[in-house]
Structures are given as C-alpha cells and as structure tokens.
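Before we proceed, please read the two lines closing this message. Tell me what the token row says about the fold.
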Amino acid sequence: MLRDYHRRVVEGLSIAVLVLDRRLRVLFMNPTAETLFELSFRKARKLAFPELIVGAETFVNGLRQCLENGAPYIERELQLVLHPGRIITVDCAAASLLEQDSSSDLLLELRQVDWRLRINREEHILAQHHTTRALVRNLAHEIKNPLGGLRGAAQLLERELPDPALREYTSIIIGEADRLRNLVDRMLGPNQLLNHDEVSIHEVLERVCSLVEVEVDTGIRIERDYDPSIPLLWGDADRLIQAVLNVVRNAVQALGRQGTIVLRTRVQRQYTIGPRRYKLVVRLDVIDDGPGIPPEQQEQIFYPMITGRPDGTGLGLSIAQGIVNQHGGLIECVSRPGETVFTLLLPLDKTR
C-alpha cells in the first residue's frame, strides 16, 4: 500500500523522473518524463538513456561518473537534442540509489525550463522596446523643436534675400530640416490610436504576399503553411499588414535573389507573453533559409537605426515590434545559418 502511494506521488510530479540502471537503461519513467521525451515508458523500458538523446556525450559521462563515485551530478540550463531533432532546455539532477545488493541505480530528475527562459527573454525584449521608445520620444522632442526654429528662420531669410540665386541655400536648409523631421517621425512609428476590428490573420498574410510577390525576384518562393482553424483576432488590419510586411521584406532582403520564405500560422493555448497569460495566442512564423543574423546583432535588431545592410534604415523591425506591442503581442527572433525565424505572437483577446 505504501509503495503504491509513493508511486502515485512520483507519477503526479511536474518534474520528469527517470530511474536508470548501471548501464543507463531505463527502468522507470513517470508520466511527465513520457511527455518530455514524447515516448511511453512501455516503449522506453530497457532502452539505453543515450538512445533518447542526440549527442550530449559530456552529460552522459557525468551520469556515469555519478554512478561510479556516488556524488550527485547537477547541470543548469542544459540543452538536450531529442529525437527527431527537438531541442529542450532543462535543469537536471542525478543521484545514485543504493540497493541492498550494493549495486546502485540512478535517479535522474529533469525540469524543463524553456518556458522560464522564454518568459525572461520576452520580458527583456518588452523592457528593451519600452526603454528605447521612451528614449526616442525624448530625443524627438529635443530635435524637432530646434528644427522647427531653423526651418522658420530659413523661410524668413528666404523672403528677405535680394538675390534669388541665394534662395538655393535656404531651400537646402528647409529641405534638410524636413528630412530630419520625417526621419524622427519614422523612428517614432505610427502614433495614432488603433482602429480595432475583427481581423483574419490569413487575410493579412495574403495581402502582404500580394504586395511582396510583385517586388521580389523570381528566385524567391513564398510558401504558406496555414492553420485554417485560427479564429479572428481583435486588432487594426492596416497596422498588422504594415508590421508583417516589414518582417517579410526583411526576410526578402536577407535572401537576396534566391531562397524560400515560409509563412506558418498556429494557435498557442494558455500562452504567456511577458507578464500576462492568454487563453489563445496566434503564432505567426516568418521563416527564411538565408544566411542568418550574426549572433552579435541578434540582441539589437529591434533597436531603431540598427541594420546590417549598407542601404538599410534600421526602422522596419523596430516599427513592426512597436505595432505588435500595441496589440499586446511580441516579436521574437531565432537565427542560425540556413534558418531565421521571426515569430509574431498576437493575443486573441478583445479586451485590448
């Protein structure tokens, strides 16, 4: 009776628990471990634990040393590659279980921390964006006031000049003042209130595709991977078109003249964005098979005026992030050579 009680307790834990023998074969795994590895205990029983993961020789050697010397083995934020290529991040702890016959099994605990790292990363992105936007607003105020004075003075001077040929210089002053003012306005992004209505994310995507397909070279293909069951979201269709268009154009520019862009939509349930949890969230992935974003730039790509292209303004992604933030959402980016994924998360919530 007590053994059954203990078993039920272990099976009810939210931590993945496995018991391995001295050959690291699976003797037990609780339901959380089955979910983590997407494999039933019946199929995993007697499999060697290294067969459940790809590589991770250092981790496996640590488990073997734990069995040999009896000292606990702990790893924090360890990335494991599971079959078929799924990557998870876990905190793990291993300790030997001494038996009466002096042999020992290994108790392995794995706590998935991807969600915690993701929330921390999202909160950092949101704080970064809000700080940047406040800085840009203050900077815009300090720039636009003297610009207005310069422009007004140039206009007055233009009226007083006796020689029409000299007005060329005042025209340059006025034109450059207007150019700087427009640049500052673009850095701020759209400031009008959102025009909320029911919006189909797929209609937004098809509108973006129709705009992009007339601009791109024939060597660039756009593929759709839509979930048709996604309900309407509550937002501003024109703003969302602008945000998605900026992200897709960024992918097009990264590809150059050849490559593939995949637009994939899915629904996430009980999903947390920053500090807030939503019942349903639209997940839009914009995936390209270009060269990727250098690691040193990935933390900065949503800053205004940050760009890796000589002819770029560095405003497209910053404006897109601002628009998605106005909808209560967030844009994330994961990139490596051959695959860059921009993920737009938009709550299906009419309260905003």
Q: What stands out?
A: The chain has three domains: 2-112, 118-188, 197-347. The chain has ten helices and 13 strands. The first helix runs from residue 2 to 11. The CA atoms of residues 287 and 341 lie 5 Å apart.
